[in-house]
């Protein structure tokens, strides 16, 4: 909701797309930098307490933005807001992973991932209902953050504790589990590029902007539907193999969509929905894999590393896919996504080969 709201408000004030993009990037950079400090902060002040603090700072940022119109002030507030949201993501995902039953971890995290996808879908809808011209959307967002405190209060006794320091640094976790860690980066890149550039893809294919919005909806809808079934599947097979399978299917889907194009619109829409569900499963399966491998402070650090790579993907994905779209319009969108998936599969193959050699 806030991503679209801030972009519209800045556009209405006459700022360029480049200036709006810089403001959006401030939140991504804050996530990339700030995620590393979240586990230590949670260990010092507590998981539950950090969640409350993050919610309070988020509400404060939204209130200040509702009262100001200064671009540079918004840039700084956006960075602080991004730090608060980063803490919410890292700590809540740690909490879910820490208490999920081992035999149902994938399904539980799949349910969480579906709720996140629903939130991304519901935000713009809510914005359309309350409008963008007044303080009403900021107040609506503040109300949602306030409501988010309710389950923390209700389940405060179940909050996990981080007592010990992690056994390794965040870069060490990335090197120890590159298949899962890089899945976060890949998902961030593909998801952000798809949400932002599918409308551009539609325009380059000679379709209406409204059709591009439908493409985004179909991509997101597939993401919502697939998370729990794939999460259930991940509870019954090796998650590293499942990540490779998901990447292979996503690669085939990207090439198929690029070759098919939107000329056969219904078939393209069905395939896009299925593809959105498959590629969207990378995040939940990788997160469940980390939860099965690590515990306590190590899990918090692994989760922080995962969120950092996701943020890096959010920053890098749109420029890379946008370059492909410019170079080979319109199929370049899917060709560049396929190239990212092929690179990931190359790393997975190298990792599997090096493990066989070492064993």
Specify the biggest β-sheet. Answer: none
Q: What share of residues are in beta strands?
A: under 5%
- CATH class of the largest domain equals Mainly Alpha
Separate helix tally: 14
- CATH topology of the largest domain, which one? Growth Hormone, Chain: A
Q: How many domains is the backbone divided into? A: 2
Radius of gyration based on Cα positions: 20 Å
Number of strands: 0
Top keywords for this entry?
359 residues, mainly alpha, Growth Hormone, Chain: A, 2 domains, 0% strand
Quick recap of the structure?
It is globular and about 55 Å long. By secondary structure, it is mainly alpha-helical.
Tell me what you see in this structure.
The structure is a single chain. This protein is an all-alpha fold and 359 residues long. The chain folds into two domains: 2-101 and 128-158, no CATH class; 170-358, MFS general substrate transporter like domains (Growth Hormone, Chain: A, Up-down Bundle), CATH 1.20.1250. The chain contains 14 helices and no strands. Helix 11 runs antiparallel to helix 12. It is globular and about 55 Å long.
């Amino acid at each position: 909701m806030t991503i679209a709201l801030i972009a519209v408000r800045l556009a209405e004030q006459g700022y360029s797309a480049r200036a709006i993009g810089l403001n959006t990037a401030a939140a991504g950079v804050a996530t990339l930098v700030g995620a590393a400090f979240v586990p230590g902060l949670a260990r010092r002040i507590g998981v539950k307490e950090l969640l409350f603090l993050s919610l309070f700072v988020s509400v404060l940022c939204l209130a200040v933005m509702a009262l100001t119109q200064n671009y540079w002030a918004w840039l700084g507030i956006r960075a602080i807001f991004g730090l608060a949201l980063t803490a919410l993501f890292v700590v809540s995902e740690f909490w879910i992973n820490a208490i999920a039953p081992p035999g149902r971890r994938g399904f539980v995290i799949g349910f969480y991932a579906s709720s996140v996808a629903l939130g991304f879908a519901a935000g713009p809808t809510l914005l359309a209902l309350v409008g963008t011209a007044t303080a009403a959307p900021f107040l609506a967002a503040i109300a949602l953050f306030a409501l988010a405190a309710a389950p923390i209060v209700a389940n405060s006794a179940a909050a996990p504790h981080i007592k010990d320091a992690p056994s390794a640094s965040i870069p060490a976790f990335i090197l120890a589990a590159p298949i899962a860690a890089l899945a976060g980066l890949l998902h961030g890149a593909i998801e952000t590029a798809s949400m932002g550039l599918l409308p551009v893809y539609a325009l380059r294919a000679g379709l209406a902007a409204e059709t591009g919005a439908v493409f985004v909806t179909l991509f997101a809808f597939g993401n919502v539907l697939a998370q729990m079934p794939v999460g259930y599947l991940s509870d019954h097979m090796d998650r590293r193999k499942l990540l490779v399978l998901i990447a292979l299917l996503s690669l085939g889907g990207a090439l198929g969509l690029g070759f098919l194009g939107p000329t056969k619109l219904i078939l393209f829409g069905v395939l896009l929905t299925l593809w959105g569900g498959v590629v969207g499963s990378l995040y939940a399966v990788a997160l469940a894999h980390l939860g099965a491998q690590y515990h306590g402070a190590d899990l918090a650090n692994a989760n922080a590393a995962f969120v950092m790579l996701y943020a890096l993907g959010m920053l890098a994905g749109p420029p890379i896919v946008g370059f492909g779209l410019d170079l080979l319009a319109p199929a370049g969108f899917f060709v560049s996504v396929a190239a990212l998936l092929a690179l990931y599969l190359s790393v997975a193959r190298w990792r599997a080969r090096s493990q066989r050699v070492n064993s």
